[in-house]
Design a protein that fits this description.
23S_rRNA_MeTrnsfrase_RlmA; 8 strands; eight-stranded mixed sheet; 250 residues; Rossmann fold; alpha/beta; Methyltransf_11; SAM-dependent_MTases_sf; globular
Length: 250
Amino acid sequence: MRSFEELVAEAESADVTGWGFGWLEGRATEERPPWGFARLLAGRLAEVQSALDLDTGGGEVVAEAPALPPTMVVTEGWAPNAERARRLLGPRGVQVVDTDGGPLPFADGTFELVTARHPVRPDWAEIRRVLQPGGRYVAQHVGPASAFELIEHFLGPLIEERKGRDPEREVAAAEQHGLAVERLERARCRMEFHDIGAVVWILRKCVWWVPDFSVARYEDRLRELDAQLRSGHPFVAHSTRHLIEARVRR
């Protein structure tokens, strides 16, 4: 294995825009939820005339769909990701809208389908507002305490934070805003990190995991983890996900 310094330097210079994780190939693994969200999304997009994908990242998941509806719009709040999505999806006629976390810039009842993979924070009132009568919301959300084994390695115990992103609370909030939740599934998926470069890269990409992360700030913890990985023992964490399908009450 290359030195700590070489692995870290490579990870610090690598591109982290978009929602692709190909850079981790051979360096880290993560099990996938059993429902196969990209495949599920592709099927739903083929059935409608208008759709909105929230927090699309670089548009990678939408781009996997073989067929898109005549009206296809995606939103993204981080400018480098939005530009990446334009390059990827623009040639297919997709409109990419920059957002700042405020109200969605669309008229009431614009879309037949609203989707998301790992939305930052679902705004149920806005989702309901832009959906047509009988429209559907289909999304894969990050669940509670996702990847917290890794996060707490750097930040220590996060007792209150572990209670966030509770799927039952999200269902209750969706139904309070006029959506009838028809499907809720949960998954806990094993993650393995095999070299310290993979850890640095994921913490640069998922900046909300360790908000003050830098190699200099956490060098001692990184070197401790590097020693474990060099001994042949991967760092194991678990991502949590839940699938929500809901329909606007008629």
